[in-house]
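PROTEIN DESIGN WORKSHEET
SECTION A - STRUCTURE
LENGTH: 82
TOKENS:
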């Protein structure tokens, strides 16, 4: 995904779209303004960066993301691809 967004898939079969952009104003997320760092997204029980030093709580990802219908995934990826 382009910009500061994540397309998430949950093992319960749901997809969602999470915009990290609003979090970049917080001190804890300043490093993610560097797109090279942001694109180095990892999974450590949740979405994380910098070997787990920066992460977003799984509850936050789930509750504050926008649901995406699985049939819309291809169109969403194409519209946001860089």
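SECTION B - SEQUENCE
RESIDUE ASSIGNMENT:
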């Amino acid at each position: 995904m382009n910009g500061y967004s994540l397309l998430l898939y949950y093992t319960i079969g749901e997809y969602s779209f999470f915009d990290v952009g609003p979090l970049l104003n917080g001190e804890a997320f300043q490093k993610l303004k560097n797109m090279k760092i942001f694109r180095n997204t990892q999974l450590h029980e949740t979405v994380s960066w910098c070997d787990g030093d920066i992460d977003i709580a799984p509850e936050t990802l789930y509750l504050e993301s926008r649901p995406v219908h699985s049939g819309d995934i291809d169109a969403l990826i194409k519209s946001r691809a860089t």
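SECTION C - NOTES
The chain has three helices and six strands.
The beta strands are 5-9, 15-19, 42-43, 47-49, 54-55, 66-68.
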